[in-house]
Design a protein that fits this description.
Largest sheet: none
Mean pLDDT: 77
Strand content: under 5%
Distance between the termini: 22 Å
Shape: globular
Helix content: over 70%
Low-confidence stretches: 116-120
Structural class: mainly alpha
Number of helices: 11
Order of helices and strands: HHHHHHHHHHH
Number of domains: 1
Number of strands: 0
Length: 271
């Protein structure tokens, strides 16, 4: 499958935007004394709605079409389903291997981190660095997912990039707060947080260099189905539980439905 240089650069720019939104979380941690929990609940629910809807309605269907075209109806359908759950298995294993407190997807508020990180400087610095490393491991598949979706269809890539950017903001808080308390340096804390966001464009670059030379309709279908699985798992395991933690149950669901609605309308606009 051939892609223009403009399509490749557009996909990379969207992935870079999604990844570096960790810097926004870092800035919010420094300048916000109280987390707006209701807004965060709606925003995380919205992000989950976008990702679930686009994964199940658009990405999964395109993956199946590619695999059926290359392998036939029965085999293509089976491989689509296996690839989807394979993507879920990959991100679930990554989640399991990273300790909960060092796992950036275990999202925390400014206040919670403020209380939990007033410990010895050496331990804090170590925790901050481990969190930054954990973000790289976690966000690598997200970068590949954003890049692949954007490369295939920029109209899909834009809402996906925005959704992932929203859920990366609290991750920036998770990295920057412990390092800030360890060093008393906002500059150093922001640097680590910002740099950790480079995991997603790194995932895009490595994925492009390794996979793109071998892309066929079948490989594309497998990759796209796995991407759908990764995004659904992130939404159900991380975004929705975090949204409910920060706000009322109904707020997170309203955000979820709003995200689905916006995604549905945006797809209809480009038919």
């Amino acid at each position: 499958m051939d892609y223009t240089s403009q399509a490749i650069w557009t996909a990379f720019a969207l992935t870079l935007f999604a990844g570096l939104s960790t810097g926004i979380g870092s800035a919010l941690a420094f300048f916000t004394k109280k987390t707006n929990e209701k807004f965060l609940a709606v925003a995380l629910g919205f992000s989950a709605g976008v990702m679930i809807y686009v994964s199940m309605i658009e990405i999964f269907v395109k993956a199946k079409d590619s695999l059926v075209e290359g392998l036939g109806l029965e085999t293509g359908s089976w491989i689509t389903v296996l690839s989807f759950f394979g993507g879920i298995a990959i991100i679930a294993i990554i989640d399991k291997l990273i300790p909960e407190f060092e796992n950036p997807h275990e999202i925390r508020s400014v206040e919670e981190l403020d209380e939990k990180t007033k410990l010895r400087n050496k331990r804090l610095m170590r925790m901050g660095k481990f969190t930054a490393l954990a973000i790289f491991i976690h966000n690598f598949p997200e970068g590949l997912a954003t890049f692949t979706a954007s490369l295939n269809d920029p109209t899909l890539g834009i809402p996906i990039a925005v959704a992932i950017a929203i859920h990366n903001i609290p991750e920036g808080i998770a990295v920057s707060i412990p390092i800030f308390y360890a060093t008393a340096s906002r500059k150093k804390a922001f640097y680590y947080s910002f740099a950790s966001g480079l995991a997603e464009p790194a995932g895009a670059i490595i994925g492009y260099l390794i996979l793109m030379p071998f892309i066929t309709p079948v490989v594309f279908g497998i990759l796209f189905a796995a991407v759908a699985g990764i995004m659904v798992f992130i939404s159900l395991d991380e975004l929705l539980p975090s949204a409910e933690k920060y706000g009322e149950h109904h707020l997170s669901i309203y955000g979820l439905i709003a995200g689905m609605g916006v995604m549905a309308v945006s797809l209809l606009m480009f038919i």
